Amino acid sequence: MKFLLTTTAALLASASIGAACEVTLRSSDTHPDGYPTVEGVKAMAEEVRERTEGRVCIEVFPSAQLGEERDTIEQTQFGVIDMVRASFGTFNDIVPVTQTFSLPYLFRDVDHMHAVMDGPIGEEIGAAFEERDLVVLAYYDGGARSFYNSQRPINSIEDLQGMKIRVIQNDVFVDMMTALGATATPMPYGEVYSAIQTGVIDGAENNYPSYDSSGHAEVARYFTLDEHLMVPELVAMSKTSWDRLSPEDQEVLREAARNSSTTQRQLWADAEAESRSRVEAAGAEIVEGIDKQPFIDAMAPVYEKYATSAESQDLVERIRATE
Q: What is the distance between the alpha carbons of residues 155 and 322, in angstroms, rounded to a whole number?
């Protein structure tokens, strides 16, 4: 079992390690050591240290050592923490434009999401973060959520009719399930296994690694790769900390961050492939290559309800038009 430092001990360790560096930047992540996002920032740190000949160091604190996502985002805004890795979903109340990225079936596939985030739209989103004292350095891959259940393969929207599907307590998710003809059943994640096993619900939705690590594949063997939700992750830096760096070091940090996104995305793809291999070996049936268009068409009332402003509607159109 890995020993987790307390916040105080972690900060003391950072001070000790950073003694040889002219600038030491502390970066927070709630995921455990070894997780793709953590390793992505570590790759960034390694490149920055090498290219600045040890002048600029990034110390990565995984496992919520510096606090949970919401808390560390606020600390990063105020410059108490220098950098944070977090999901777009956590920024919804801080940077409103991120709410659009919680809409179902917004992206056609993972490559489409990467093309959007690495292009002009990603730059535009970054500008919105700067208004909240945050500098976006990189967009990471948080995976795609898909449906799985204990009853039957979901090959079409008709196969979802009447199913009871566990979702997180979120109005968008509840309305998505209603639009698909299923019954949304919000419940704590820890209760899902037994709820499927006892027939309280028919299934749930998540990504491959979660489907695997939770053991849900044991009780819900039908996994349909519909990828209804892809919420980007990002690495953001405190504007206060950013402004302390020289233009040259800022450029090094930006380039290292962009390179780290390639590393992180590959690590995530590897994790998904490993999880898929394990669940298939255990008897899970993977349904892929479905026609997503009927699912997308069914989302019209969801988009009418949540993409209400002209700005959000325009953003949705531009995202869908991105090649």
A: 27
